[in-house]
Specification:
GO terms for molecular function: methyltransferase activity. Keywords: Cytoplasm, Methyltransferase, rRNA processing, S-adenosyl-L-methionine, Transferase. With 257 residues, this protein is an alpha/beta fold. The protein has eleven helices and ten strands. It folds into two domains: 130 residues, Tetrapyrrole methylase, N-terminal domain (Cobalt-precorrin-4 Transmethylase, domain 1); 112 residues, Tetrapyrrole methylase, C-terminal domain (Methyltransferase, Cobalt-precorrin-4 Transmethylase, Domain 2, 2-Layer Sandwich). The protein has a five-stranded parallel β-sheet with strand order 3-2-4-1-5, with helices on one face. A five-stranded mixed β-sheet has the order 6-7-10-8-9. Strand 6, helix 9 and strand 7 form a beta-alpha-beta unit. Helix 9 packs across helix 10.
């Protein structure tokens, strides 16, 4: 008699709170629905950016929903570092081996350090591999910083583009900003990007030097936290003393007409 093959598990895209790297944390039940927390607690096999932060997340989940297995017994596989640096679609990475547990009938969770995995974070190669393997992909509900910032910006939410990180070099950054501004003013398309907290001051300075006076600039930081700051002003208004995000809080930037 042939042994029946196990039913395939599913790939769950598990969002996490946006307070990674912040000095304060929001109660996890304030930012993640009960269903998302319950599903995260039921998963024992994980693919992630960083195992340490994944365990920290699961510890927070376990404070409200008992984990299916203790932290030392959780199976946590990290995406290779080159996938982080080059991006899933430029690295040629094959995510199929990371989904072996799903082919054996176990659900697998994909997780990033903050927000929705595979959106402005690594993980799309794993999602693509899941589709190629015939696995069901299930995105769970949770915070997505780009959409929260866009919705609160007053900029065009029907035509927008996320452009990742901007160049670190000041001259290259200025050139890129002028390109994005030209596109935004010509098409009405909102341009969004993110920045590492310690470069927030340099980013704001570069924006105010490079952009036209009437271009609208929105900056959102500390999203979902009590200290949240969301500002949307013309460049002229920003130059009148508006303060940008500090050097400790991740921020989303957006420009448009």
């Amino acid at each position: 008699m042939n042994t029946p093959k196990p039913l395939k598990g599913r790939l769950f895209l598990v969002p996490t709170p946006l307070d990674f790297g912040c000095t304060e944390q929001a109660p996890i039940t304030d930012v993640l629905p009960t269903n998302t927390l319950a599903k995260a607690a039921s998963i024992q096999h994980w693919v992630c950016e960083n195992a340490k932060t994944t365990r920290a997340f699961l510890k927070r989940v376990g404070e409200t929903h008992p984990l299916i297995a203790p932290l030392p017994e959780q199976s946590i596989a990290e995406l290779p570092r080159h996938v982080h640096k080059k991006g899933d679609h430029q690295s040629g990475f094959d995510g199929k081996p990371l989904l072996a547990a799903a082919l054996q009938g176990h659900d697998v969770g994909l997780i990033s350090e903050a927000g929705m995995p595979a959106v402005a974070d690594p993980g799309s190669s794993v999602v693509r591999a899941a589709h190629d393997l015939g696995l069901t992909v299930v995105p769970l509900v949770g915070p997505v910083s780009l959409l929260l910032a866009l919705a609160a910006s007053g900029l065009n939410g029907q035509n927008f583009a996320f452009v990742g990180y901007l160049p670190q070099d000041a001259a290259e950054r200025a050139t890129r900003l002028k390109q994005l501004e030209s596109l935004a003013l010509k098409t009405g398309q909102t341009q969004l990007w993110i920045e590492t907290p310690y470069r927030n001051a340099a980013m704001l300075s570069g924006l105010l030097q490079s952009l036209q006076a009437n271009t609208r600039l929105a900056i959102a930081s500390g999203l979902t936290l009590p200290s949240v700051s969301i500002q949307s002003h013309t460049v002229t208004q920003w130059k009148k003393g508006k303060k940008g995000p500090d050097g400790h809080t991740p921020a989303v930037y957006a420009i448009g007409p």
